[in-house]
Design a protein that fits this description.
The protein is an alpha/beta fold and 533 residues long. It has 16 helices and 17 strands. The protein is flat.
Length: 533
């Protein structure tokens, strides 16, 4: 029987009773489904509900098939052996005892029919490009990308036909992504994948969007979803425009009716005097006029209220969209100024006998260039950034910087001090003479209004952390001459990535980016590349 997931009227509330998911309905059958939506909207929660790690407040989930689940944030595996992470350590030990002729009955139960499973493991690890990893190594010896691939291997070994993945391509280089995509293409199973990776989302058969409007299913890949959503948004915008125009028209007519009636009443008084009407006649005519005015006024007020109600209904169908504003003095860098020069640079880790790079690094970054640093996982991209920032000392070679005005943003937004509020973090970066009012204005440009600025950094979502970090960087009177970003799109939703791209396109200094997201690199107009190995 084909694997399937059916969800009916699913509702989930947070521990503080705040509704997160409401009246969720969908049916999935043996397809690859991407889940998109803003950070904090409930994407990861939906996967946890499907994996039975969370319990819904109400509704029904029916699953046919065996489920494997890979969360975005895993437990700390640093002290575990790789065989333990893969949950094959007992089987390996049982096989070893069987080969030596001293296996127990329990060992044969553990092995079952998997006498060739070590060969199967080798194939899977090779497919994911981690066949070089010895299973006795510990988790702390792996890079982020290697750990992700190992956990994907764990999912593959479980032989499930329903696979739930939360941001599986985070920290994967291009080669690792390609290997994962090959696995995805070859596997005939039901996949539900939360991701902001547009390359991955375009390999999906369908897209589920979770928004302030609820959950909606699109029967196509990411590009199809974007096209359909644009059509829907334009249609809603036109409906809102029409409803707004009708409401304004009704208000104008209502005002004109009142003004015309006032004129009639005033003219009636003049005519009554001219015609010499008796008091009884004047009173009767006035009563008729007031009743007519009241009736027309009530009718028109009803029409106006209906128009207003329709406008509110149409407006409630609009998806939330945000746009930030970067307003600061532009960085003025001469077009031929040498901003970064690396001469015969290399580095060696304390626990290594060899240099990090096979060949010493030599490059120059000139003027307001936009440069990406590329290389496989473990090639030393982040180490190069640390050397540029002066956090590490080179083994050989030297680095020249054309400016000391450098800002750095990593994927964890670690420039934020966790126990401080957004306001306090901004004050740290802002000039001493900047008033509290101006700090609030700067926060507002990055969509932090009212009491939002009193949230602590540790309580922020991924998208909020990004906006707070950008607000801090751009709170300075003058833009940094050099801005360095290390995997900035990891842990961000697609809308936050768009916000980041918009901010960077308003920046005119030297930009250096480590990223495996070709869409993002194209959006921020990266023109040059430094490849290290």
């Amino acid at each position: 029987m084909s694997p399937s997931i059916s969800v009916h009227d699913l509702c989930y509330v947070l521990p503080d009773n705040t509704p997160l998911l409401k009246n969720i309905n969908f049916n999935l059958r043996n397809e690859k489904v991407g889940v998109v939506g803003k950070n904090g909207i409930g994407k990861s929660t939906l996967l946890k509900l499907l994996a039975k790690e969370f319990e819904a407040k109400s509704g029904c989930i029916q699953i046919i098939g065996k489920v494997s689940y890979l969360p975005q944030k895993c437990i700390d595996y640093s002290e575990y052996k790789l065989s333990q992470i893969l949950k094959i350590d007992q089987k390996i030990e049982a096989l070893n005892r069987a080969e030596k002729g001293c296996a127990s009955e329990t060992d044969f139960v553990v092995i079952g029919d998997d006498w060739n499973f070590q060969y199967e493991i080798e194939i899977i690890l090779n497919e994911l490009g981690i066949a070089h990893l010895h299973l006795n190594r510990t988790g702390k010896s792996l890079s982020g990308g290697e750990m992700i691939r190992l956990l994907l291997a764990k999912v593959m070994l479980e032989k499930s036909n329903i696979i739930l993945l939360d941001e599986p391509t985070n920290n994967l280089d291009e080669e690792s992504k390609s290997q994962f995509f090959n696995y995805l293409d070859a596997k005939n199973s039901l996949f539900v994948i939360v991701s902001h990776d547009r390359l991955l989302l375009n390999k999906m058969d369908s897209i589920i969007e979770i928004s302030n409007l609820g959950l909606k299913y699109y029967s196509g890949n990411y590009d199809f979803y974007v096209e359909q959503r644009s059509i829907e948004d334009n249609a809603v915008a036109q409906k809102v425009k029409n409803a707004d125009e009708l409401f304004k028209k009704m208000k104008i007519q209502e005002q004109e009716l009142q003004q015309n009636q006032l004129k009639k009443n005033s003219q009636g008084k003049v005519n009554s005097k001219k015609e010499g009407m008796s008091a009884l006649e004047k009173g009767y005519k006035k009563e008729i006029s007031q009743k007519t005015t009241s009736h027309l006024s009530v009718l028109h007020e009803k029409k106006t209220n209906l128009a207003l109600s329709d406008l509110k209904i149409k407006s409630s169908q609009i998806r939330d969209h945000y746009k930030i504003k970067v307003d600061m003095e532009l960085s003025k860098i001469p077009s031929r100024k040498k901003m970064i020069i690396c001469n015969d640079l290399n580095y060696k880790y304390s626990n290594s006998k060899n240099k990090l790079w096979k060949n010493n690094l030599n490059f120059e970054i000139i003027g307001s260039s936009r440069v990406s640093i590329q290389g496989k996982n473990g090639a030393g991209k982040s180490t190069l950034i640390d050397l540029i920032l002066g956090r590490k000392n080179p083994l050989v070679g030297d680095i020249y910087l054309g400016s000391k005005k450098i800002a750095y943003l990593d994927q964890w937004c670690s420039l934020l001090q966790e126990n401080l509020t957004i306001f306090e973090n901004l004050k740290k970066f802002a000039p001493d003479e900047m008033s509290n009012h101006e700090v609030r204005v700067r926060a507002g440009r990055f969509l932090f209004y009212g009491d939002d600025i009193f949230k602590t950094a540790e309580s922020l979502s991924g998208g909020e952390r990004l906006r707070a970090s950008l607000a801090c960087i751009f709170a300075m009177t003058h833009a940094p001459d050099i801005l360095i970003l290390d995997e900035p799109t990891n842990n961000l939703d697609l809308e936050s990535i768009a916000i980041l791209a918009q901010s960077l396109n308003d920046y005119f200094g030297t930009l250096i980016v480590i990223s495996h997201d070709p869409y993002f690199l194209n959006e921020i107009h990266i023109k040059e590349q430094i490849y290290i190995e």
